[in-house]
Amino acid sequence: MGDLTNSDYYAKNQGNDVSSNHEGGFGVSVMELRDLMELRGSEAVVKIQEEYGDMDGLCQRLKTSPTEGLTGDDLDKRKEVYGENLIPPKKPKTFLQLVWEALQDVTLIILEVAALISLGLSFYQPPGGDSGESCGTAAAGAEDEGEAEAGWIEGAAILLSVVCVVLVTAFNDWSKEKQFRGLQSRIEQEQKFQVVRGAQVIQLPVADIVVGDIAQIKYGDLLPADGVLIQGNDLKIDESSLTGESDHVKKDADKDPMLLSGTHVMEGSGRMLVTAVGVNSQTGIIFTLLGAGEPVEEEKKKEKGIFGLEKARLVKKQDGAAAMEMQPLKSAEGGEMEEKEKKKANISKKEKSVLQGKLTKLAVQIGKAGLVMSAITVIILVLYFAVDNFVLQKRPWLTECTPIYVQYFVKFFIIGVTVLVVAVPEGLPLAVTISLAYSVKKMMKDNNLVRHLDACETMGNATAICSDKTGTLTTNRMTAVACYVGDVHYKEIPDPGALTAKSLDILVNAISLNSAYTTKILPATKEGGLPMQVGNKTECGLLGLVLDLKRDYQPIRNQIPEEKLYKVYTFNSARKSMSTVIKLSDGSFRMYSKGASEIVLKKCTKILNQEGEPRVFRPRDKDEMVKKVIEPMACDGLRTICVAYRDFPGDPEPLWDNENDILNELTAVCVVGIEDPVRPEVPDAIIRCQRAGITVRMVTGDNINTARAIAIKCGIIHPGEDFLCIDGKEFNRRIRNEKGEVEQERMDKVWPKLRVLARSSPTDKHTLVKGIIDSCLTDQRQVVAVTGDGTNDGPALKKADVGFAMGIAGTDVAKEASDIILTDDNFSSIVKAVMWGRNVYDSISKFLQFQLTVNVVAVIVAFTGACITQDSPLKAVQMLWVNLIMDTFASLALATEPPTEALLMRKPYGRNKPLISSTMTKNILGHGIYQLVIIFSLLFVGEQIFDIDSGRHAPLHSPPSEHYTIIFNTFVLMQLFNEINARKIHGERNVFDGIFRNPIFCSIVFGTFAIQIVIVQFGGKPFSCTPLDLEKWGWCTFLGLGELVWGQVIATIPNSKLRFLRGAGQLTKKNEMPGDEDMNEDNEEIDHAERELRRGQVLWFRGLNRIQTQIDVVNTFKSGSSYQGQLRRQSSTTSQNQDVTNVSSPSHVSLSNALSPTSPAGRNQEICESSNQDFWKTLEFYGKFCKP
Predict the structure, then answer these.
(1) What confidence category does residue 934 fall into, taking pLDDT thresholds of 50, 70 and 90?
(2) Catalytic annotation, pick one of 468, 702, 774, 801
């Protein structure tokens, strides 16, 4: 009550001079508006009435007009007083912070410490002149004073190289962050919103919206600011992102007018007065409480890519749930299933992508191997030194010699660490990042705006695309080309004179009033161009019909403005129609309706005849009309829309909320056939997809005949093929059991042949995507991409592996749920995304092939060298340089290869394909052998070949030898030429093909070569190098070039000859599903007893299979029949048996969810498959001995 009196007093005291007490001359302050926006429902209505009289009063205080909006001359002042509509981003990390982060790397810290110890000890002079001799071999070689003083150089050089590595890493992170921010601002600029300014409806970037603006809101919008509803039609808002409540909230100017930023418009349309923007809006306040995203949050954002709409997205965690709740999934599965689904949706986006999962595991495996190798190296060196000095030469440990011994141990330790540094492929994550960031940048030019980085790479594995029809496969320029009016079917638009005045009037009024007033046809911008269609394209087609009938819709709309419309039933996916009620001058009501012809005609009981008078419309007439009018139109690929009306008495007024009674007993006016031509580039894009092994399916809300006609024009289906074209009703009948639940078994009978799903609801789309993803019919799990533009496509876009939203026709909700936004709404851009995705995968494989060769060789050389000669042939600083070449530079060079058309000539890799193919394994081993042979030949007989002093067994601090310089130089040059070999990973012969299309690659190769010359000729002591003459350079280059020749030799060896490679590639087989185990550990639902039970089942299958195998071997013996033939037959029957076993085993009978690859049951199947491979190996083993 106190508040009330306060506000009363405040109002009285202000008198007439309302604006004088407020900043900027406006009649209401920021805080008052903030307080107002915290009220809900009737409280808010009361507050507005008390404080401002009514909505017009509030508009006057804010100096705006509810119909004409702002004039636009005080925008800067408004921004100053009420703030801008953006939440200031968190400051980016400075370069120094990134340097500090890069320094946290454990291996680098170990190296720094070792280098510092080495540096400190090198300045230590043992006391007494003769202690040198008493310390034995340890001190040998330190006689030359100049050399002893140069002992610090190695430590300093290591520190310097660490600095280099750190700076390069920090620079990469910095440029990555910069790119992300660029991408973020690009997404923010993409988001536009409709506002009224100066009585004109214009599209504004969200950041330019100010307090006092009148915003037009419609179905599918994501509200960019807080506001109060001025006028609304059937408006329902999903506020789950703020409140967590999944029910849609009905908004009404008289009952609950408060609209909040970050919420989604699920139905209807309206106009709102913007009252709070940026940090003062509800979302902004929450972001401020979160400290505009703590560092952790920031990390998440960086990982996930970007969140659009001025970052006014609420806490991300709720997003998955919100999208699932948005969707009426009840018909499909029970509530429990939904819960699981939600959990899964939340997990799935957090998962690493397939490629990152495989790489992380590979890096860990290599790292472990490196750690073991480096530990063994250090132990062997220390033991060898100790045994040699203290056991064989029986020297005592002298105190004054301790620093010299420690120096040796530090040297051994540094060798060990360098082995580790070279072994750990820290370049892998860098290569992925560079490759993805590069691709994302280039994909922008191909009209793909990537929101989640990993989507780009997942797209390369896509096996199925479920595409919308309208706007994606077609041009989305609707034109009315045929109609049925007054009992006559016109194949072309008739002359207005052919229709009666009454029919024409009703038709023109029905179309003009019963469509969104934001839909317009504007004159062409260019001479000779087509008129511009603004707003809903189907409505534009109908307005086009009005213009073709030589009438104009605008005067009719001016006569009855939007606020005078009595009631509007907006279009939604359940109604599939839109109706508008107007009050006539005599007090009665007329409702105009339009929608999908089959649906509206069912509700018609009358139809206008040739004179424009209603006549009875019997069910028999409806059937005839469907056969003679609608089907022929649909078969020509036309979308059919029926326009109808109904009159109601003014007294008593009908119950408008009783929709079923209102939307009935209509009078049909006409049926219009609207054409939406296929985009000219689509048929070719679809052929390319099919060639690349990707199945394209069309999922549309249009009727079956139209959909089939368009699918044939696009090339999705070819006459004579075995395919399915069904509508939503038939689809549900086939996949659901008697209880109405979706069964995976039934789904598996439908989806492989399904090409067109017509008259589908968003739930059908979601069910189809889920069914394909969860299916275990094929060896590889299907990777599904989906396109969507409507709010209700959100769940399907989230469920898909890659969701494409339409940049032009798409709603904000769809964009928010998607991974990639198609800025031109064009299907052929999806094909480009596939190409880039495959290119990312190939780039990483190229880098991997190169990196693993260097790793294997460098580690073996360092390890063997250290064990045999007590010193690594490649010194610490040299190793760091090699590490820099193969990690940072190579990842830059190989990860930025541009894609070629050849990428679309092969089938998708699939999720379970090992990261390292057999061809790659062959190349890695082949080149590894060549390099090891050359290096070891140089190491052990190099001094004889070149007639120089041997560098082996050199004492501490001895000067660099020509011998070891040749080894280092040859090693680096071999890597350089092998980098050219690594450009091809599918066994191609021409490794130079298209090399000049990648300037980065060329400049890195030449740049590295130039730096190598400088290091060898002028590197001196820090790089342990001594200058080489021209002849020796010639030999080093010749041995390097040998890599290219050897590459040709390797390419000639067929993979089939190298049986063992098949197993080698399987190293990464267990990486099938990234984060698989981790995910299951997070899911508390899986208890250990169940896991044990499943393990038991697997062992049981194994045992059974083994017995079966042995019986078959015995049978093969007895019959003496061809062993190979038997094996082949056996293999096929076992795979069938196995499918049966998997389906019939108790743990697999449960919901389809249990068979998804991420579930333990799905993993069971994979285990069974791998165990089957084991049996065939056993069988082959038997076979070798059993051949008669």
Answers:
(1) very high
(2) 468
